[in-house]
Structures are given as structure tokens and as C-alpha cells.
Amino acid sequence: MRRIVVVSNRVTELRKAAQAGGVAVAIADLFRERPGLWFGWNGKIVDDNDASEPPGVKIAKSVGGSALATLPLTSDEHRDYYLGYSNSVLWPVFHNRLDLARFDAGFYPRYMRVNERFARALQALLKPDDIIWIHDYHLIPLGAELRRAGVKNPMGFYLHIPVPPSQTFLAVPEHRALARALTAYDLIGLQTQADVANLIQFLEDSVAGRILQDGRISAFDHRLAVESFPVGIDPDSFTRVSTEKPHAQPIAGAQRIIGVDRLDYSKGLPQKFRAFGRFLEKYPEYRRNVVLSQIAPPTRESVEAYTDIRKQLEALSGKINGMFGELDWVPIHYIYRSAPRDRLRDIYRSSRIGFFTPLRDGMNLVCKEYVASQDPDDPGVPILSRFAGAAEQLVDALIVNPYNVEEMADAIKTALVMEKDERIERYTRLMSVIRAHDSAAWSASFLATLEAAAKERSRDVAPLTTSMRASMARLARTPLAPVALKLGKEARKAGGQTRAGN
Ligand code: ADQ
Question: What pTM did the predictor assign?
Fold first, then answer.
């Protein structure tokens, strides 16, 4: 079996991956089934003055003979590549927040240099038949750097965050270089169909990419596939009921609405708090009967936009608790720490509503985790933003517009009064989607498509499309002149991708 080389900004020890959650779980599972190398940053920052040479790679063997190859960042690299270009330019732009993007801060050259350094370090570890799978916005140029160094292996890129509309992407001063770098891959995987449409439009607008008849994109003489592979979870790790005394006791006499997010401006947390405040105002009969527990640990605290969101939430929860709270009832429990994963499962299960309101989100795995944790005989109801990638799949959640506070307040009421039969029907349909698209299916389908796409690339000539084949068959059967004309037209439509055209 060919070795999979996974590259991501951050590498987690495989035995700690389950605790980290998200995609780390899928990668750890993948490496249990086949040989792998996981390459990336180890989370450490070294002082620039300590090292005249950039710090090198450390290799550690892990489960099933798979290896982790990690390297630290220097403090300048951490500032410009990680906090800077990745999280203060690409993250806000890709989440439609041009207003927060720091275009003029000069981060880009070091973003490129870290990608070049990673490419050099990785190249030394590669074997000829490795399959390379690069993850996320920190590493967009890595594939092009590897190709420049002569790496011919199948190479795919997966973007975990959303692709913005083309007009927004074009605002990035370096958009052409980023587009060019993207075309170095054999396959680009995205979370949703909407992301696929946005990326294709962007490649057309930015670097005159063309859609071929077989659905691939052609730009700079490369052909690449762009497809959606919605990220999934391992539902079984959430359906298992804890046999011990549950960590999360239901709140006496009150139903819980749960929110679990990283503290990030893309997650729509102020909107969520305002919607809950509006709900208490509009439906006073529910006061004392409902609490909103929001778990939101801080991330990237050294980026200014993140300190602002924290202050905003503290002010909002204080205001709502002050306005509606009683001595024996606090409406919003705002917890500024991360919760262990087995505890999260219990909290999800004991919550009547899962409330997920991102203004923009690649997928939102927490909503899937909430559904998978429910009691099948008495499940809770997820309320989900239409702007989370998960909304494309989880159509049986209560789908809301996070900018519409009134609609979200009403959705809380709808979820609270929803009959058990309807809750079970919705849960059953949601679970069948979550099971069909679990994390194992996600990685398997991405890797199978990548291998197929790399084979296409290695062919010297483009394959014939079905309609071209039909025309060729007709050509063999009918008088030459008229059909040849028609075939010529089809070939022009396909951008000249016929065997003769090449
Ligand atoms: P995130 O923005 O981190 O991930 P999400 O998918 O919701 O968002 O969560 C990823 C993992 O982190 C989940 O397993 C979740 O349980 C865990 N997590 C989130 N908040 C937590 C908290 N407060 N305490 C403990 N654990 C928490 C990025 C993209 C998403 C995309 C994922 C995967 O931004 O859109 O779904 O990658 O591709």
C-alpha cells in the first residue's frame, strides 16, 4: 500500500489526536490503516537569535509504524506566517471579513519563505510512490514549491475553511500568486458545492482558468480537479453512552441550549447571545426554564480582532444576565475554557438544543457531534446557520440566518415545542447523512479521487469526453463532411482538448 504523506500547519501526537478532535481524529485513523508520514509545525516557537540556521526536522515513530516529522517556527515566522498572513489575511478574507484583513502589514514574503522551507525539509523525506495530501490555507504555496523542486508525486490540497466569492478573493493583493500555486495540485478538495463554484469562478477571474468538458480546470498548462468532500466525524465515538455517572447533570428544572465554538469572530457568538436575549424578551414564559451554556475557549489571542470579540461577549452576557437573571437563575453560562471531549459528549446529550450560528464556517463539526451524541429515543434539536458548510448536508436541522436575530429567537421557541415524533424523524435523517459521510469516508474518497486525478495528469493526452466519443462513433458510420464539421464545433467548445488538438 502506498504511503500517505499528510502535511498540515499543526501536527498532533497521534495518541492525543482523539482529544484534539476535528480532523486530527481522521488523520490518526487513516494512519492506523495504512503507512503514513505526518509533517508540519510542532507548535513550538524558537527565538530567532538562538538559531543561525532555521530549526530542523525531528522524526518520531508513532502508531502502526507511521511517523511524525515536525519542525518548530522561529518567532518571526510565527508572527508573519502564522498569526500574520495565515490568520490576519487569509482567514478573515476567506470568512468574508475584508474589513479585518491586514493587507499592508508585509506578512506575505515570510509566508512564502516558510512554505519554501517546509518544502525543502519535506522533499528530503519523500519516496517516489508517496501520495501527498496538504491541508489548509497556511500551506497553499507548498505544492507549487514541491513541484518546482521536481516532486512528481500525486499531490492533493484540502481547504478546511470556506472559499469566498471571487470578488472578495480578488481583493487579496497576492491573489494571482495564490491562484497559480493552487493550480500545482492534481486535486483540490473543498467542503461544499458552493465552495467549488466560488473557486472555479476565482480561477477563471484571476488567472483565466478554463473549465474542460470532463469537469477539470485548465490553467498555466496544468489540469486539476476541484471537488467537494464534506468533512465528517466518527459518529460512534459520540453515540457511545457513558456508563459512569454523567459528568453533565441536567440543570434542575431548566432545559439547556448548548453552544461550543472556538472563540472566533466567524462563529457568530454576539448574534447568538442577542438572539437568546430576544427570545427571553419575546417569550417571557420561558424565563427560568432555559439556560444558554456557551463554551468558547480563546484562540489566537495575540491577534487584535480576537480580543475585541472576547470583550464584546463579556459585555453582552453581562447585560443579558443583568436584565433577565434572578438570584437563583443565570440565563447565560459563558465558559471561557475548553472542555474535555468525553465531557462534551455528555453535555451535548443533556442539552435540548444545539445552537450553532457561524456567520461563515467551512463545515462546523460541532453540529455533527451534537447530533451524534443525542439519545435516539428523545433527541434534542440542532439550530444551524445557513452559512455553515454543514447546512448543505444537515437540511433537517432548523436552518437559520445568523444575521436575523428575530428568526433565531423564533427557532429556539420552535425547537423547544417540537414534538418528540418530529424530533426523532429529523434526528434519524440527520444521522443517516452523518453516518454516510463520516470521517473515514471523507479521507477514503479524497484519496481515491486524488489517485485518479494524478493518473489523468500523467497521461499525455486528454481523455475523450462521452459526447466526443459519440461523435467519433457517428463519424465512423455516416458520410464524412457534415459530421466532421459538428465534431470540429464540439472540439472548439472543449477548448481544443481532442486527441487531434493536442
Ligand atoms: P474549527 O473552526 O475549529 O475547524 P469545528 O469544525 O466546529 O471548527 O471544530 C473542530 C473540532 O474542534 C471539533 O471536533 C470540535 O469538537 C472541537 N471544538 C470546537 N470548539 C470547541 C470547544 N469550545 N471545546 C472543545 N472542543 C472544541 C476548522 C474549520 C471548520 C471545519 C473544521 C474541519 O473552521 O469549519 O469544520 O476545520 O474541517
Answer: 0.89
